[in-house]
Every structure is written in structure tokens, then in C-alpha cells.
């Protein structure tokens, strides 16, 4: 995700007319964020398998719902204090309700699954089964709409989720189709990342770097705490909070959300460059810190209790 995004940003910064100059397929890749993401959402939907155990569905459902509700609560609070256009001056320039909702709403399912394979149970590892629901702009649209930040026409909601639904249906009707489309998910990430980066000017990243780092740390803290509690007390399966920490990351696709949202509602267009840079930085930070924090938490949560001193009574000779 990150290297292709940076390459696209470098090209756009020093040669912004590259797409028009080369045209044809090259232009399609540079400017093809929406169609590439559309195919990616379709394939993500195909990977979701509902034939899972009740424990797995409960665990994954709990993490998804808590993460989404946390992002919604943050957006609701931010909408009362941050202007619709975002903060325009000072250190927090670029922070907006769109940025906060986009960065906190989506979990990196691949990172979660790999961490749970090492630090969790089989049920924990399989709990990423519903995390793909967070992919795409749909839930962010719902969050922004319910927070009173923006309104979207019903047809746009349908358009945002339709590829995902079709993929989901086909993937559950035919196991071979699920496997076939599922293999395309990681392959498409570098392409939409490059296309997304091709809309970013590196001067924006230079001004949002430190703020993006703090945003990433904030995502882990703000979403991680309720996720830990949910894993321990709601998710079942004997969770000790490790799965909650592992789910506190930002998914790489979250960086595409501001671009997609702005395409559906023009009031966000002025925020796209800074919002994308901030969310992309938060993705980097969470992808680095979440594995470290998860390992430390798992070690602490499963620490061995010191043995109890028991007086040993020698056997009686009788």
C-alpha cells in the first residue's frame, strides 16, 4: 500500500500532467482509483464466508460493531467543535470530521489475522471474517450522515455497497469463486494505492507528517481501549483483550475514503489532499505500533503467576 502510494505522490508532485501526456492505459492506471477500488471491494465481499462458528461470528461482529460505534461517537463529538471544512490554521490544520471518521472506522484485517495467528486462538484468528464489511466508504458515509456532517442520496449508498454485495453473494454461492476472487484482493492493493498517491502533492505530506503520527497514535488509544473491553467482556471465547488491540489499526484502504467521499459529496473536495495524507500517515503508524503493542499486551495478559510456596511434609515412615 505505502510504497506505491509514495511513488504516485512523487510523480504527481514533479510531473502532475503525466496522465494527460501518456494517455491510454497509463492514464487509466494513474486516474483509475474508483474503478480499481470497485473491483477490490467486489473481491473483498467475495472473501466473507458466513459458514463460520457462532463464536467466530460473535467475536468478529463484536469487534466490527465496537470499532464502528467508536468512530461514530468521535465523529459526533468532532462535528460539534470542528468546522465542516476542517481546521484551517495552526498545528491541527487539516484535521476534520472526515479525517477522524476515515482513520478510525476501518481495521487492517490482514494485520489482525496475522497477529492472531501468533498471539490468539483459532477463533480469534478467524474473527476477521466480518471485518471486510468495514471496507469502502459505506460505513463512513453512514457515520458522517448520522453525525449531521453531510447527507448522501440513497442511490449513492447503494452504489457504494453494490459491488461488495454482489461479490459476497457469489462468494457464498460458490466456494471456488470465493477462492478465485479472494486471490485478487492483495494483488489490487498496489494499483489503487499508486492511483491514490497520484492525487497527492508531497508538500501536503510534509506539512501533515507529525500531525499524522499523532493521529495514528490517537486511533490506537481511542479505538483500542473500547476494543479491549469488548474482547474481554462481550466477544466471548475467553478473550483477554489481545484481539482488541490487534483490531485497533487503520486499514490501508482507509486512505482512499476521503477521495471516494468527496466524489459523492463535493463539500469535501477541498479536504481530499490533506485528509488523504493524514490518514495515510495514520495507516503507517498503526501498522508499525499495533504489532508491537499487541505482543507486549499478550505477554502481560498471559504472564505466569508466581508459584505459591507450599510446605512439604515428609512422608511418615509408617
Could you characterize the architecture of this molecule?
This protein is mainly α and about 325 residues long. The protein has a single domain, classed as Up-down Bundle (Na+/H+ antiporter like fold), CATH 1.20.1530. It is about 70% helix and about 0% strand. The protein has 16 helices and no strands. Helix 4 packs across helix 10, helix 5 runs antiparallel to helix 6 and helix 10 crosses helix 11. The C terminus is likely disordered.
Give Rg in angstroms.
22 Å
Query: What is the helix/strand order?
Result: HHHHHHHHHHHHHHHH
SS elements, strand count: 0
Rough outline = globular
Mean pLDDT: 84
- Topology-level CATH name: Na+/H+ antiporter like fold
What share of the residues does DSSP label as strand, in percent?
under 5%
The low-confidence runs, each spanning 5 or more residues with pLDDT under 50, are 305-318
Major sheet summary line? none
**CATH architecture field:** Up-down Bundle
The helix/strand class is mainly alpha
- Our measurement of the CA-to-CA distance between the termini, rounded to an integer number of angstroms, reads 75 Å
> Tell me, what is the CATH class?
Mainly Alpha
Q: Provide the number of structural domains.
A: 1
Instruction: Give the count of helical stretches.
Output: 16
Provide the helix percentage.
55-70%
